[in-house]
Write a structure and sequence with these properties.
The protein is an alpha+beta fold. It is built from four helices and five strands; from the N terminus they run H-H-H-H-E-E-E-E-E.
Length: 125
Amino acid sequence: MDRLQKYIDNKKVKYSFSRELIYKILLNENDCLTVCMITEKLNDRYLQKVSKNTIYRHLRFFIEYDLAFTIEVSDKAYYCLYKKEQMVFSICTKCNMVEKIEIDLPNELREYSYVTLHKNCKNCR
């Protein structure tokens, strides 16, 4: 949450409760989420309804200020917050699900902020 507050203060952007809620959802998730997944989690956890347009607008804000990034697979976009450590993602070659995975990478790949691997997920094996 400190990173979000820093960007809001530095860029002189008005505070938004919905922006904070979306950021908290992404912050507390280990996996990347689609807009539909974010909407479901918001509806499950909070009384205030947030429109998909608002979610997209805040996600663009996060991406613009390097708080988050998107992984696009086929016709879906998955969103994830940048972490300090390198992140590795697995993209299923059958269902296109994106998962975070923990593996040791060779030294030549350690300079990248994230790496994607393409393999079948647990459900499609």
